């Protein structure tokens, strides 16, 4: 307002002026609404987005970039965690230079770039669209990308959505263009429509896919139902989701679309109500993403979880089996010890000695069965050394021939100059014999049993799933009846057998499988009905030189010379009684203790044993702990640990061990190998 004055300067009136600002206000409001809609779309899209600040060296060469903005999909698509504020070189030192060159060129020229490229450092392929944002001095590039590793298909750049946008306000044009470009170039299908089914906006990905499925291309302003007027079955399918979104519901579901005669991808479909600036519903919008690969990965995850449950079941079975086998060893120890002593002393007449010998043989068979149980439970004491596999296989060929019978031809195919493998020779022999017996039973009418061994280097993706390294692959194949998928899936389960009651324990393959895992190897089985079976067993190559075979220390029967005092410690009375008899028969005076604590008390009270023979697993103090306590008092005291299976925890590595059950000769051999006791 301004005053109006006459010639004398007296105010005679007021001049009032005004400007029409309605259009400016409407323009600002339209911009705000548009930005809000696009921000919502941006935050919900599955495409990855980031803004980087390109870093140049003193020579003007782009050498790195810093992440200054990322959307929620960035980490999922790129695999990079906690990237915001950090540089690419900091997160991924081996990131390739060509990425920095591309973004540096965009900063220099202002030209956007659309390309597909692989990142060896990330092990992925990407579809990328990048453009400069802000001023050139800010050196910032906006990047929208999708992981196309699995699909690796091109997606055309989409720009049609900009044609549907009305008024652009200069102050917010840059950000609006970025958001519009993000929606336009994403491979997520985006559409918005009003209550009359008129399309308000649709991106090119959606338009392309709609045309592929329904044979007609939609555009902004078209009526969605009108496009499908001659396809009523498709109209019903389209309305099913849209009507719920128009009613105000937030709808999400996964469904397959497309021609039934072609591959039908799976899509995750989301409908959300579309509201104006005052919260009134004006329609609905839709996001549709191809989730075929995600569903495939979920199915793979379910399979992996099932495999884990199976593994846990097998582990529980192993724990139970190992415990039962350990207790059974304690029962077998006095039985075998007593029978062995009666047989060696020649008591009874010929018939009675034959009965004793038969009972002892049965006990030995029971011992072998327990060894198989412990091998399955991965608790069988192993003595892995460098083993000459060629010599081992040649040495048991005769036994295999006699085991499988004359109707089966045994062929041994060994690669020349095989390196030594890290294994337990006795258990490896038992594993090969078990596989040979299984092959024999699979060829009731005769056939060919082939055993071959060759070097094999394991790399990433190898069928064995072993760690990378060098192995020897031992394979046993037959030309027998083979196995169907159901039988093959259960082949290594303990006690599973197809041989019928009384013809097998079902522990053969489970024992071999347990041995493979104990030796850091792997077992694989391939079979088809009528096409035979192939069992492959990978053994790690040993870095140790092969030594001479140990020569057992023989003890002359009827030894009467006194060897000193043996302190015998075992909480099982029958085991203690039998072991004491064997020790006395060998030549020791025996002092018994039923617990480690009692034995330690005896020593503290003045007992000076020459040797100590102790069980390991006992209530209270273990045998390993007792050995440590005794050696603290007498460092040179000879101690022999006796156990139903190898419990390495708490046992000094240099302590010799003897596995239950054992016979007199085995005990004598172990004691003879001990260092002489000395104070």
From TrEMBL:
<dbReference type="GO" id="GO:0000155">
    <property type="term" value="F:phosphorelay sensor kinase activity"/>
</dbReference>
<feature type="domain" description="Histidine kinase">
    <location>
        <begin position="323"/>
        <end position="543"/>
    </location>
</feature>
<dbReference type="InterPro" id="IPR011006">
    <property type="entry name" value="CheY-like_superfamily"/>
</dbReference>
<dbReference type="InterPro" id="IPR036097">
    <property type="entry name" value="HisK_dim/P_sf"/>
</dbReference>
<dbReference type="InterPro" id="IPR003661">
    <property type="entry name" value="HisK_dim/P_dom"/>
</dbReference>
<dbReference type="InterPro" id="IPR003594">
    <property type="entry name" value="HATPase_dom"/>
</dbReference>
<dbReference type="InterPro" id="IPR036890">
    <property type="entry name" value="HATPase_C_sf"/>
</dbReference>
<keyword id="KW-0808">Transferase</keyword>
<protein>
    <recommendedName>
        <fullName>histidine kinase</fullName>
        <ecNumber>2.7.13.3</ecNumber>
    </recommendedName>
</protein>
<dbReference type="InterPro" id="IPR005467">
    <property type="entry name" value="His_kinase_dom"/>
</dbReference>
<feature type="modified residue" description="4-aspartylphosphate">
    <location>
        <position position="615"/>
    </location>
</feature>
<dbReference type="InterPro" id="IPR000014">
    <property type="entry name" value="PAS"/>
</dbReference>
<dbReference type="InterPro" id="IPR035965">
    <property type="entry name" value="PAS-like_dom_sf"/>
</dbReference>
<dbReference type="Pfam" id="PF08448">
    <property type="entry name" value="PAS_4"/>
</dbReference>
<dbReference type="InterPro" id="IPR004358">
    <property type="entry name" value="Sig_transdc_His_kin-like_C"/>
</dbReference>
<keyword id="KW-0418">Kinase</keyword>
<dbReference type="Pfam" id="PF02518">
    <property type="entry name" value="HATPase_c"/>
</dbReference>
<feature type="domain" description="Response regulatory">
    <location>
        <begin position="565"/>
        <end position="675"/>
    </location>
</feature>
<dbReference type="InterPro" id="IPR013656">
    <property type="entry name" value="PAS_4"/>
</dbReference>
<dbReference type="Pfam" id="PF00072">
    <property type="entry name" value="Response_reg"/>
</dbReference>
<dbReference type="InterPro" id="IPR001789">
    <property type="entry name" value="Sig_transdc_resp-reg_receiver"/>
</dbReference>
<dbReference type="Pfam" id="PF00512">
    <property type="entry name" value="HisKA"/>
</dbReference>
<dbReference type="Pfam" id="PF13188">
    <property type="entry name" value="PAS_8"/>
</dbReference>
<keyword id="KW-0597">Phosphoprotein</keyword>
């Amino acid at each position: 307002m301004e005053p109006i004055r006459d010639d004398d300067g007296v105010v005679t009136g007021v001049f009032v002026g005004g400007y029409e600002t309605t259009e400016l206000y409407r323009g600002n409001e339209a911009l705000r609404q548009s930005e809000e809609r696009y921000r919502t779309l941006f935050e919900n899209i599955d495409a990855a987005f980031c803004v980087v600040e390109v870093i140049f060296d003193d020579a003007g060469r782009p050498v790195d970039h810093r992440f200054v903005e990322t959307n929620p999909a960035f980490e999922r698509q790129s695999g990079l965690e906690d990237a915001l504020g950090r540089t690419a070189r900091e997160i991924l030192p081996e990131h390739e230079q060509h990425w920095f060159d591309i973004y540096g060129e965009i900063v220099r020229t202002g030209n956007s770039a659309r390309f597909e490229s692989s990142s060896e450092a990330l092990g992925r392929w990407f579809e990328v669209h990048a453009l400069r944002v802000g001023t050139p001095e800010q050196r910032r590039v906006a990047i929208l990308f999708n992981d196309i590793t699995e699909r690796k298909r091109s997606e055309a750049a989409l720009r049609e959505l900009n044609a549907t946008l009305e008024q652009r306000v200069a102050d917010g044009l840059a950000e609006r263009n970025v958001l519009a470009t993000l929606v336009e170039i994403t491979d997520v299908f985006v559409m918005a429509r009003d209550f009359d089914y008129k399309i308000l906006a649709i991106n090119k990905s959606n338009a392309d896919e709609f045309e592929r499925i329904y044979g007609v291309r939609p555009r902004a302003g078209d009526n969605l139902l009108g496009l499908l007027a001659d396809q009523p079955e498709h109209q019903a399918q389209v309305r099913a989701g849209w009507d719920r979104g128009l009613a105000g519901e937030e709808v999400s579901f996964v469904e397959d679309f497309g021609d039934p005669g072609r591959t039908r991808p799976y899509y995750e479909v989301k409908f959300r109500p579309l509201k104006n600036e005052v919260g009134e519903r004006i329609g609905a919008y839709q996001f549709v993403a191809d989730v075929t690969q995600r569903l495939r990965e979920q199915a793979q995850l379910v399979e992996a979880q099932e495999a884990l449950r199976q593994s846990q079941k097998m582990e529980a079975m192993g724990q139970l089996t190992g415990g039962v086998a350990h207790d059974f060893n304690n029962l077998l120890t006095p039985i075998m010890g007593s029978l062995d002593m009666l047989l060696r002393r020649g008591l009874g007449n010929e018939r009675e000695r034959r009965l004793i010998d038969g009972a002892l043989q049965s006990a030995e068979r029971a011992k072998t069965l327990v060894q198989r149980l412990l091998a399955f439970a991965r608790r069988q004491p192993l003595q892995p050394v460098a083993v000459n596999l060629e010599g081992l296989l040649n040495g048991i060929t005769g036994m295999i021939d006699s085991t499988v019978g004359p109707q089966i031809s045994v062929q041994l195919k060994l690669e020349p100059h095989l390196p030594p493998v890290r294994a337990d020779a006795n258990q490896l022999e038992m594993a090969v014999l078990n596989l040979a017996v299984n092959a024999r039973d699979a060829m009731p009418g005769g056939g060919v049993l082939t055993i071959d061994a060759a070097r094999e280097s394991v790399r990433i993706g190898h069928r064995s799933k072993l760690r990378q390294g060098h192995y020897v692959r031992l394979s046993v194949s037959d030309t027998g009846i083979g196995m169907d998928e159901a039988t093959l899936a259960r082949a290594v389960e303990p006690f599973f057998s197809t041989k019928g009651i009384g013809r097998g324990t079902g522990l053969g393959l489970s024992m071999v499988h347990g041995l493979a895992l104990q030796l850091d190897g792997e077992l694989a089985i391939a079979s088809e009905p009528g096409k035979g079976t192939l069992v492959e067993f990978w053994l790690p190559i040993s870095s140790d030189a092969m030594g001479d075979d140990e020569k057992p220390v023989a003890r002359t029967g009827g030894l009467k010379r006194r060897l000193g005092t043996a302190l015998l410690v075992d909480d099982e009375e029958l085991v203690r009684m039998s072991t004491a008899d064997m020790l006395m028969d060998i030549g020791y005076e025996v002092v018994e203790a039923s617990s480690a604590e009692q034995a330690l008390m005896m020593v503290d009270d003045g007992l000076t044993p020459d040797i100590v023979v102790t069980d390991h697993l006992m209530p209270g103090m273990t045998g390993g702990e007792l050995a440590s306590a005794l050696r603290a008092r007498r460092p040179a005291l000879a101690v022999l640990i006796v156990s139903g299976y190898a419990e390495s925890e708490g046992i000094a590595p240099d302590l010799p061990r003897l596995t239950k059950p054992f016979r007199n000769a085995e005990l004598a051999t172990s004691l003879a190998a001990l260092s002489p006791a000395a104070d």
